[in-house]
Model the fold of this input.
Amino acid sequence: MSQKQILRARIIDEILKIEQADLPQYKKGGSVVRNNYYWALKSIACYARREQDWEFDPEVWVALGRMLMFFTESGYLGVSETLLEFSVEEPIPEPLRLVSTWR
Done:
C-alpha cells in the first residue's frame, strides 16, 4: 500500500479543518487499525460529513494531538498519515505542535 500524503490543515475562525482528500477512509473488511483511526478522528470532530473537510473545535485539539501521536507511535500507520501540515503563513497552535509541520 502506498504512503498517504500528509493531512493538510488550516484554521478558520478558530476551527481546525482537515482537507477531505487527506482524511482516512473507512473500508469494510479493511485494516482494523486504519478503520479505528477513521472512527477515532470522526468521533472527536465537530463536523465530519462524507466528501467534505472535517472540522475540530479548539476544545479537542489536545485530544486530537494525543490521538495522532498514539497512531504514529503504534507503528501501524506512517508519519505521513498522522501529521498535520499547515501553510507557512499560519501559526501552529500549541496543542498540535508535536504532530504538525509547515508546507
About this structure: Helices lie at 32-44, 61-73, 79-82. Strands lie at 7-12, 15-18, 54-56, 84-86, 100-102. The first strand starts at residue 7 and ends at 12.
